[in-house]
Design brief:
This protein is an alpha/beta fold and 308 residues long. The protein has two domains: 6-173 and 209-233 and 277-281, Rossmann fold (3-Layer(aba) Sandwich), CATH 3.40.50.720; 176-205 and 236-274 and 289-307, Alpha-Beta Complex (UDP-galactose 4-epimerase, domain 1). 38% of the residues lie in helices and 18% in strands. It contains nine helices and 13 strands. The chain has helices spanning 15-26, 81-86, 88-109, 142-161, 183-193, 211-224, 239-250, 278-281, 291-307; strands at residues 6-10, 30-35, 49-53, 71-74, 113-117, 165-170, 172-174, 196-199, 205-206, 208-210, 227-231, 237-238, 255-258. The strands form four sheets. A seven-stranded parallel sheet has the order 3-2-1-4-5-6-11, with helices on both faces. It has a two-stranded parallel sheet with strand order 7-10. α3 (88-109) packs parallel to α4. It is globular, with a radius of gyration of 19 Å. 42% of the residues are buried.
Amino acid sequence: MWQNRNVLITGATGFVGSYLVKWLLGRKARIKIVTKDNLRNLKVLEDQIAVVHGNITDPGSLQDVMKDVDVVFHLAAISNVNYAIAHPRETFQTNATGTLNLLEEARKNGIDKFVYISSSHLYGVPQYLPIDEKHQINPREPYAASKAAAEMLVNTYALNYGLRSTTIRPFNMYGAGQSEEFIIPSIIKQAFEKEIIELGNLTPTRDLLYISDAIEGMLTIAEHGDGTYNLGSGSETSMKELVETIINIINPSKKYVSIESRRRSNTVDIPRMCADVSRLKKLGWSPSVGLKEGLMRTIGLVYQNNCA
């Protein structure tokens, strides 16, 4: 499907976006990215992609950006929950108004498909597990609220203007290159550098999906999906299980401790999360990398990069 297709990606210089760019280049797609930043980890691919320097919050910088584009993957967002709590207006302008600006350009240019990368944060504290796409949304902080607003805009453009779209709600994705503000790279960094790993609450569970499975899931949804899809492993892992798995890979003699200063507020810290991905599996996708294997790959690449 992707050979010679014109694909626009926002958020392409981020963790997930950069992997998506590489995957699509491997499938012979023609890639255009919109970024307000430098190319960061896409610098080595600069001669293989078209770069538009723009800001999704500035409609003027997006004029003509979707000319001849077939598919849009919209990943650009403020995604740090604590930053969003401290900067709610900026978060809404980026995540919701920025999405509106892109939808307008997509409508004007008659693109084939708009793929919106949303978030499992929309669900809030789950009423049941695993969480399916019919679970009511209950945003508990500005990040989740802004993503919910953006989802509604995407749905509105589909209903009113016939814009073909699909929404993906990822759970926790991980892999090499992820920011250390996220839990897995934070634990890995501490395991390499500190005698005792400091963590917050050890009891919450999360659904953890390795990046290669995540990208394959996104492409499957983009190719065959319609509507909203969860993207996760379908398995639950506690923070205690996670840190012990990482320690056993890096250095079984390492110790860890839960400290109060690293605990999140009750508003942010959801006790349990696990995705029902049966809807996505009906499209022919299933995760292929288990947690231990994914962590071993991640740790191996982090170690190589640190030694380079």
